[in-house]
Design goal:
The complex is a heterotrimer of chains A (331), B (305) and C (251). Chain A is built from 13 helices and 4 strands. With 331 residues, chain A is mainly alpha-helical. Chain A is globular, with a radius of gyration of 19 Å. Chain B is an all-alpha fold and 305 residues long. Chain B is 73% helix and 2% strand. Chain B is built from 12 helices and 2 strands; from the N terminus they run ααααββαααααααα. In chain B, β1 and β2 form a beta hairpin. Helices cover 39% and strands 24% of the residues of chain C. The two termini of chain C are 34 Å apart. Chain C has 251 residues and is α/β, with parallel strands linked by helices. In chain C, β1 and β2 form a beta hairpin. Chain C contains 9 helices and 10 strands. The chains are: A mainly alpha (331), B mainly alpha (305), C alpha/beta (251). At the A-C interface, α7 and α8 of A face α2 and α3 of C.
């Protein structure tokens, strides 16, 4: 019966892909309408929280690029959020407050870290890969905890507001919000092109059947590593936004719980769809906020929700993918 | 300096023994069932809270320990029956999500039941105090007892894995799962036994460490990741690998923090040395892991990558 | 035209010697069949030749170049392709996409991130040609997982052809294919003769004796006979070890 189900985005089904682009476009329009709405309600809190939603949407989408299209379950992606946030803090302590430079610095550090840790992690599979990425993420976490010049465990407050080419970003008018939305749209377009390119086809091919890919002449490692690096770099952009949104950085941005939450966002929205994880990020954060408003013990319900969601979805959330060979966790 | 070294080495061994207790169950669960369980650190925490409760009720560490064990068996069986059993055939991603959910739930539930302030467990009288080691060097009796107890459990596990029928099945299962089912063994029961055994060992580690650490909700988290490093270094499914990996990780972690800055002073000026040392120390075990994996992707004793 | 030379190849799994001092000379343009009973180590040998399995000792030489230590992707790029006994395709890709990927592997860089691959005419045209050669062009836009068993076998062949091989390793291409389908498949392989060097593992003895220029017999990892089909058919050792009953069944 599951034979009739089709794989999400293995590169075909143009109608399905066009549908996803449309869904993403709808989301973007809704996002764009948010600030005027907040202004009408005279509640700038919504813009602030909306920026956070958009930043996590970027991160979830970036994770989907490797998790959904490359079957690489990275449990250390919060590290890249961290590199982005600390790029903001460290540059700011040297008097640099320009968003574009912050993004560049975050990307540079992330690329290097992803290159080294990815090269080691990708020599392994399955459970190993998950645990090793988790461990490397934790390594980054501890590094920033011991970075006493930037507050260590306590974090570091940003004193000066960031700007983009001279324009102040952190005013009440939602400039940062719109910049983030523009980034999200641009990065979505980028990821969308990547997954439908030659490179993307190789990446999805490796997800479906790595041995077959070798047998036609592709060495999977270099493609997986490249995707891993791209994903890390994009995630760091989300980190830059988060630091600017909160005006504060701390190692808490890169705890392994955060990595887990990113995976939850991707799965909630739909693995291997790009647009899905954007919605997934909004859904997961809304759920957190909503449960948080209901009970101080909301985490109990959030955890329970996760467990039940996995146990009672018919074949598991990723069952569909496994059926089609997408999530070759088991070999 | 020598004294400090010996003290830290003993501390390292003590941590290593505890890590082994936790990692042993985890590596078997990974190796035999191919299930990733993020909630294993939770069991360690639960063990500590259980002994804290039972010791407080009975007024005795020993009664606490004794009562903790059947409670740990119950916890293991319940988690296996309610959650883990349904995850064996699922993808790793499903397992990650569900056990991550368990972690979040358990942390919050522990906060609700026991509150947020740390608990302490009284040290048994007979094991308090210190013994002279050499010269002026003293070492707490309790820590020595932890080492001895841990080694005894390790020896017991070793005997069980190598000389009993269940152990034979475990070894067969860790290298080749289909062999075990071909032998006509009730896989579900074997899995339940393995998971519960692992759960009890993790709880035991938490209970043993409770008198020397404060018992709080965060305690399972840092240990979980260290345990992952141990399992990865040792090779998934290998008890021997878990034992050596645990000692290696613990000793490197303990000695690195103390002696890293001292060694760095040879090449850097003192303030830079202490700063760099402090930053590098918590990363040492991960660097160790990276180096070992670079040379041996399946870990030291891993049978499959 | 490229030949394949194998010398003293060995492979053991634990105490089990699966490939035992195998030497093989496949002349350029020849179709060389390897036959043998189940468990003789035929698929293991193909995996060693294709680079999927590392050999314990011995050498593999492709057109005068030692490729013993080369991983599979490198061998494919030198023109050594294989098909799999158990169909191994990308289930979520269409037949055309499966084949186009094989074309892409040899045509230009795959580190292109922006241009949409689905509309690359050069890839699709070459892939369609390979599909036509394998007799599957009418099913080009069907997802691989929806193809029938016989179509899967043809897709395997089309993918191997699309890598533009000089030497083609075919691991039981006819497994599970019967009747007219099998005849058509044999005709197809015959058309490649003289254009490609082929190593064929096959249980269907009719097909083997229709197609092969030379036949080697593998029993318990050892080549016990090698020569023209008629000579091998009449070799008493071969008849004793294997051919008698198995051929009787097939015929």
């Amino acid at each position: 019966m599951t034979e009739t189900l089709t794989a999400p985005a293995a590169g075909r089904a143009p109608r399905r892909i066009a549908g996803r682009v449309k869904a993403a476009a709808c989301l973007f329009v809704l996002f764009a309408l948010m600030p005027p709405l907040a202004a009408a309600l005279d509640d700038p809190f919504w813009i602030l929280i909306g920026t956070r939603f958009l930043a996590y949407a970027i991160a979830a989408m970036a994770l989907d690029l490797i998790l959904g299209y490359g079957a690489m379950v990275s449990f250390g992606h919060a590290a890249y959020l961290g590199f982005g946030t600390y790029a903001v803090a460290i540059l700011s302590s040297y008097g640099i407050h320009d968003l574009s430079l912050q993004i560049l610095a975050g990307i540079a550090v992330s690329a290097l870290f992803a290159l080294v840790t990815g090269a080691i992690s990708l020599r392994t599979r399955g459970v190993y890969f998950i645990m090793i990425t988790l461990a490397f993420g934790q390594m980054a976490f501890f590094f920033f905890i011991s970075l006493s010049a930037y507050g260590g465990d306590d974090g570091y407050g940003l004193t000066q507001r960031s700007s983009l080419f001279g324009f102040d970003l952190t005013g009440r008018d939602g400039a940062l919000y719109y910049v983030t939305l523009a980034l999200l749209i641009g990065l979505f377009a980028l990821c969308h092109r990547i997954v439908n390119s030659r490179f993307g086809r190789v990446l999805t091919g490796i997800r479906e059947n790595p041995v077959r890919m070798e047998a036609v002449g592709f060495a999977p490692f270099r493609y997986q590593l490249t995707a891993f690096i791209i994903s890390g770099c994009i995630t760091s952009i989300a980190g830059v936004i988060l630091a600017n949104q909160a005006q504060f950085v701390s190692p808490a941005f890169m705890s392994w719980h955060r990595s887990g939450e990113l995976i939850v966002m991707v799965v909630l929205g739909g693995v291997g769809t790009l647009a899905g994880p954007i919605a997934g990020a909004v859904a997961a954060l809304t759920l957190e906020e909503g449960l948080g408003a209901l009970s101080e013990h909301w985490k109990l319900f959030f955890g329970l929700f996760l467990v039940l969601m996995v146990l009672f979805s018919p074949r598991g959330l990723t069952g569909l993918l496994e059926k089609t060979g997408l999530m070759r966790g088991k070999s | 300096m020598m004294n400090l070294f010996i003290l830290q080495l003993l501390n390292g061994v003590q941590l290593g023994v505890l890590l082994f207790l936790i990692a042993a169950g985890l590596t078997l669960v990974f190796g035999i069932m191919d299930v990733i369980n993020l909630a294993h650190g939770v069991l360690y925490m639960v063990g500590a809270y259980l002994i804290a409760t039972f010791a407080a009720v009975t007024g005795s560490f020993w009664w606490g320990l004794l009562l903790m064990l059947p409670a740990a068996v119950a916890v293991g069986l319940v988690i296996e029956f309610l959650v883990m059993r349904r995850l064996y055939a699922r993808s790793h991603l499903d397992q990650v999500l569900a056990t991550f959910g368990l972690v979040i739930m358990a942390n919050e539930a522990v906060k609700m039941i026991w509150g947020t302030s740390p608990l302490s467990v009284p040290m048994p009288d007979i094991l308090s105090g210190s013994v002279p080691l050499m010269g002026p060097l003293q070492y707490p009796v309790y820590r020595i007892a932890v080492i001895v107890a841990g080694l005894a459990v390790a020896l017991g596990l070793f005997v069980m894995v190598n000389y009993t029928r269940v152990g034979m099945l475990l070894r067969a299962g860790a290298t080749n799962r289909s062999t075990v089912s071909a032998l006509g063994v009730d896989i579900n029961r074997l899995f339940a036994i393995v998971f519960t055994l692992g759960a009890v060992l993790a709880c035991l580690a938490g209970a043993l460490v409770a008198p020397v650490l404060s018992v709080d909700t965060g305690m399972g988290e840092s240990v979980l990741i260290l345990t992952f490093v141990v399992v990865v270094i040792g090779g998934i499914g290998s008890i021997k690998g878990a034992f050596l990996g645990a000692l290696l990780v613990a000793v490197v972690d303990t000695l690195g923090g103390v002696f890293g800055p001292i060694l760095l002073r040879e090449v850097l000026d003192p303030s830079a040395a202490s700063q760099v040392g402090r930053m590098l120390a918590p990363m040492l075990v991960y660097i160790l892991m990276a180096v070992i994996l670079f040379a041996k992707p399946a870990g030291l004793f891993g049978s499959r990558a | 035209m490229t030949g394949l030379t194998v010398r003293n190849l060995n492979k053991s799994f634990g105490a089990l010697k699966v490939t035992d001092d195998v030497s093989l000379e496949v002349a350029p343009g020849e179709l060389h069949a390897i036959i043998g009973p189940n468990g003789a180590g035929k698929t293991t040998l193909i995996s060693q030749l294709s680079g999927q399995l590392a050999s314990d000792s011995g050498t593999v030489n492709l057109g005068g170049r030692d490729i013993t230590r080369m991983p599979m992707p490198g061998r494919v790029r030198l023109g050594l392709a294989r098909s799999f006994q158990i169909t191994s395709v990308l289930p979520g890709f269409t037949a055309l996409e499966n084949v186009a990927l094989a074309v892409q592997a040899r045509k230009g860089s795959s580190f292109r991130f922006f241009a949409p691959v689905a509309t690359e005419a050069a890839l699709n045209d070459a892939a369609m040609r390979a599909l036509a050669e394998a007799g599957l062009d009418d099913r080009a836009h069907v997802l691989a997982r929806s193809l029938s068993h016989g179509e899967h076998r043809r897709l395997e062949l089309a993918i191997a052809l699309a890598t533009d091989p000089k030497v083609l390793l075919l691991d039981e291409p006819l497994a599970g294919v019967g009747g007219e389908d099998a005849d058509a498949f044999v005709d197809r392989l015959r058309r490649f003769k003289g254009r490609l060097t082929m190593v064929l593992i096959e249980h269907d003895m009719d097909a083997v004796f229709k197609l092969a220029d030379r036949v080697s017999v593998l029993v318990y990892g050892q080549i016990i006979a090698s020569g023209a089909p008629e000579d091998v058919r009449n070799d008493p050792a071969v008849r004793a070890a294997y051919l008698g009953d198995e051929h009787g069944e097939a015929a």
